Amino acid sequence: MVSSGMCLLLLLASIHVTLTAPTRRRQELEGCSRSSPDLGDCVGNSIQHFVNFMASGKLSPKVSVTPFDPLLLPNMTITHQSKEFKAVFVNRYLVGLKNSFVHDTSVDLKKKELSLTLLMPAMELLGMYTTESIDNHEATENTILTISIRSSAAKFRAQGELYKSTTTGMDHVRLNVTDVELVMGHYMINDLDHSTPVPRTNRHFDSVSRPEFVKLIEKDLRVQLGARLQHIANEVLALAPYQKLFPV
Predict the structure, then answer these.
(1) How far apart are CA 141 and CA 130, in angstroms?
(2) What is the DSSP string of 47-69?
(3) Domains in the chain, start-ordered, CATH in brackets?
(4) Which tens digits make up the pLDDT trace of 180-193?
């Protein structure tokens, strides 16, 4: 039996066809055959198609899911008691995931596990960065923060499970991202290269070294990419049953 986790990979690309293709062509176009000798290639190509062409979340004129480019992120709080300030990074969103390349996709059918790597050539993380003195709440500083990230990679490991939908009575797939390894490449903050000692007007921002700040951002992005992409994938997976995506 094909891994239920693998169903995610096929659904991400085939759901658009399932919803919009003419009836006479659906059987030919949707999903990938479980017995296909080129199943691995079908999986990789399907994910790449979804990443490049369905990032807006619009799967058909009447069906949409949460977009992943731009990818909205929850607020982030940074507290440094020793440096006497608290910072919040709010209204955050990440741009550029739709330009990613899917690489090194592998599936373990017996363990129902999958892994894949996204090579991300260029991303922008944007939001409002506000700092506040812990002792004096009226002493605040605001910055529109832009972090340009280049040549990064994220490896995802996931576990799939089948469940019976109470709506359709058929088997569907739920995805659980179990691990994300993120390596950020070169970065620039507010259009200033991190290797250039240009003074900033934001005093509290300066009290955190740029390598330390970027390390916090990298840790947060690793968590958020896993959580947000899992959420979006499960929205998509709920739209079609397993059997429709994996014809025998």
Answers:
(1) 6
(2) HHHHHHH-TTSB-SSS-B----S
(3) 31-245 (3.15.10.30)
(4) 999 998 888 874 44
